Amino acid sequence: MPDLLDTRLPSADNASLEYTPAQMAAMGEAVVARAVQHLASLDRQPSRGDVDAAELCRALREPIPETGTPLGPVLDHLFDELIPRSFTTPGPGYLAYIPGGGVYPAALADFIADTTNRYTGVWQASPALVQLEANVLDWLRDWMGFPPGASGLLTSGGSMATLNAILCARERHLGTEIRRGTLYVSDQGHHCIEKAAKLAGIFHDRVRLVPSDAAFRMRTDTLAAMIAEDRAAGLQPFLVASSAGTTNTGAVDPLTDIADLCAREAMWHHVDGAYGAFFHAVPALRPLLDGLPRADSLTLDPHKGMFLPYGTGALLVRDGEALRAVHAATAGYLPAQQSEFYDPSQYGPELSRGFPGLRVWMALKLAGAARYRAAIAEKRDLAVWAAERVARIPGVVMDAWPQLSLFAFHLEGSRLTTLDAQNAATAELMERVTRRGRVMLTGCTVQGRHLARICVLSFRTRRAEMEACVSQITDETRDLLA
Asked: Residue 320 falls within a domain, yes or no?
């Protein structure tokens, strides 16, 4: 009886890379078993594994293997030695940065997409499968309140979505006069906006950082003055990038005011909704994002607000033809273009691509939109609940209340007489709580002050994790300030 988990390829035919059906079934069962075992133990895993792994990384360097290895030892190596040496990003206690997720149906969708390996770059190659992706973009469009003429693109994340948005704005407003163009973003905006601007030919000296107010929101009065100053200097202001939830403090810029200003100035308004835009899917929370549907383009990260695996981003463009105008191309080896159905290659830069739409489609098909809305709403409720309790802890000073599901604070005390001392204590608080292993917290530095921050956006984070978080912050703050 052959060992089906000895998955080395038969030596009789050195040119074959094919496994037998029995081998493939056994391999799949083994992988699923280990993956499910891993997911079932997430609540018992430390919120942050041992990432002091320089020596391990040096030891992992190896030449390309000349012969194959059985699957069993490979899985053991991954699950027992390598995966634990990382942040436990899919865990219920991951309250750091902007959490991802990884709902299980998305993993099944990726397995289907990878094994069937259908080409979805061009509509004619897989029309029915591409239509599923078109459906997903329509669903996102409806959630965000964009008009029927909007179109979009699934990307690897917010950075690529932002790059494509800037390209659309550049083509529409600057044409070949790229060097005259100026772009405006808050000093709290995500760094990917400046990076994407450079990739789009808008260099650093044409990117304006607009100061933020006491609530870390873009100051529209200063924005208007900066635009006027650039126009007077003979430059061409063409794009404002606002934030629907910043990474540092979760701040939502005054989207309606910025939309009004962009309309008056005939400029493109891009909204970075990578973190926060999915709260717009919940009707009761839409006032928090007032003005978002007026954006000319919108970055989304389904791997944040839809709890999908990393590598799932999206872009919506109000005028879908603006996106198509940037990317539409043809060649003798490509089929004739058609306009009735969505065609990914005509709306994005890639011709060869995976099938990201399947993971979004399958997650929504299996869970349903109502359950998603409830899960998203719960995360804001948990953040508000936690913020109210953290604010009562002696020594805590709240810097940013949760506009969505992220809040920030720092420590002060009679012994913390300098900003450096307060910064050090705040950073130490984050580290002490994280070392306990139940939740992982991180901080950020804003205008010289180090802030502790808590972001609730994992679908596995429930009331128990937030109660533990508040309790541990209370204990560690008391000890730090004693």
From this structure: no
